[in-house]
Sequence to fold (162 residues):
Amino acid sequence: MACQSYSQLVAIKRWADRGLCDVVSRDFDKLSKEDAFIMLRILDHIHAVDRIFQHHLQGVPHVFQAPRSANMPELTALVDGIREADDWYASYVDAMTEHDFEQPVDFVFTSGKPARMRRGEIVLHVCLHGTYHRGNAGALLQLRGLTPSRDAITDFLEDAAA
Fold:
């Protein structure tokens, strides 16, 4: 996969995450207490996994004991953290060379199992993982009569062309 493709994947992730965060921030008070908790859990899980793998890429330890925060963050802090992590990934990927994406990274999953992934595989995982769970969030919004954000690559390309 060419460097440009990784950069585009991360740009799409950042765009889609921001769209979801904007919709959730706007409509959060329209969710029941239970649905609001589920939404926070979804966003927190996406963000925790992003942070865990950010630390793996940096070769530094993280504080997560599971792929979610020990304490549920408030929505505003979570949205700020998601934006910060997405910006980090965009900057990180844009600075990488083709060779960098092939470099292996050894780490330990939160389950305790040792693992090895190439840097490109980690970036791909973070992007695909976020896509899956944004779909969960979008489905919850739709079930409650709320309009989710646009999340498709074609939507991103359409917005980029405008």
